[in-house]
Write a structure and sequence with these properties.
Strand content: 5-15%
Number of helices: 11
Shape: globular
Number of strands: 8
CATH architecture of the domain at 1-174: Alpha-Beta Barrel
CATH superfamily of the domain at 1-174: NADP-dependent oxidoreductase domain
Helix content: 25-40%
Radius of gyration: 19 Å
Distance between the termini: 36 Å
Strand order of the largest sheet: 7-6-5-4-3-2-1-8
CATH topology of the domain at 1-174: TIM Barrel
């Protein structure tokens, strides 16, 4: 499963199971196991059988929730992505992509997930302290040993991806990409297309900003990311962004849909995007994701919608 067409179009992001991403201060918070089970049930019912997690999500809770769900539901097929880089426990120095740490982290992930092999294993960030060749060679050895089926890179720029290509071939790149985050269009997307690396981004709705939940001059909704972990999105508090959101809403109404569906469909409409990771907060949030699969935008529509935020 190394070519772009081998991966499903949608992956369920499990980053808030038992926490809020990899942030240690939120371990034990986020979605409860019952809430995670409801999301996974809804995703599987909608045909999504690719779950995306990381060892550090919820301090390991995300992987454990998936394992518990899998043990009770016994799905016919379940593809798993996990990642390595961030601390899983309280020691902030226990991070990085050294060969020994990768091997140790993978063993722990396999145990938490209750599996013998992970379909896709990603470097969750770049590690300036470890030569990229050593990291890639470790991934390749784990693939040869059958502990992972494929490996890839997350939160890596074009320079880092090119450096990795000198030692091996990543199956997939997972970076942030949306109407509000388009920097990968300059170099990462063309590189992935040229090298036939699947590009499957996270954050197609920009942390909820493209759903219409954040409105000009209005307080942030209780429990939203802007009330819990606003730092990654603080730069979006800008009049031009709200102008773009208004235009996106108007366009969605014209097309008979909603902002979230249109924004997600815009990401999928890029011919160099193989699929996307969705991170719903509740089962009902899967509706626009599924609807986006059926909303096809041509090149002119895509360009016009993209102009709302430039």
């Amino acid at each position: 499963m190394s070519r772009a067409e081998a991966w499903p179009r949608l992956s369920l992001g499990c980053g808030n199971f038992g926490g809020i991403g990899s942030a240690p201060e939120f371990f034990g918070k986020g979605q409860s196991e019952a809430e995670a089970f409801a999301l996974m049930d809804a995703a599987l019912a909608a045909g999504i059988d690719w779950f995306d997690t990381a060892d550090a999500y919820g301090g390991g809770a995300s992987e454990r929730f998936i394992a518990d769900w899998r043990a009770t539901r016994r799905p016919e097929r379940l593809l798993l992505t996990s990642k390595v880089f961030n601390p899983v426990g309280p020691d902030p120095s226990d991070r990085g992509l050294s060969p020994a740490r990768i091997v140790r982290a993978l063993e722990a992930s396999l145990e938490r997930l209750g599996v013998e092999r992970i379909e896709l294993y990603l470097a969750h960030d770049t590690d300036p302290g470890t030569p990229i060749g050593a990291t890639v060679e470790t991934f390749e050895a784990l693939r040869a040993a059958g502990q992972i089926a494929a490996w890839g890179l997350s939160n890596h720029g074009a320079e880092a991806i090119e450096a990795a290509l000198a030692y091996g071939r990543p199956a997939l790149v997972q970076n942030s990409y949306s109407l509000l985050e388009r920097s990968d269009e300059d170099d990462v997307l063309p590189l992935c297309a040229a090298e036939e690396i699947a590009y499957v981004p996270y954050g197609p709705l920009a942390g909820g900003w493209l759903t219409g939940k954040y409105r000009r001059g209005a307080p942030f909704p209780k429990g939203s990311r802007m009330t819990m972990r606003p730092e990654p999105y603080a730069h979006l508090l800008d009049g031009a962004v709200f102008d773009g959101l208004d235009l996106l809403h108007e366009e969605a109404v014209r097309l008979g849909t909603d902002s979230a569906t249109l924004a997600f469909a815009w990401v999928l409409s890029n011919p160099d995007v193989a699929g996307a990771v969705c991170g719903p907060a509740r089962p009902s949030h899967l509706a626009p994701v599924i609807a986006a699969l059926e909303l096809h935008l041509d090149g002119a529509e895509r360009e016009r919608i993209g102009s709302f935020f430039t």
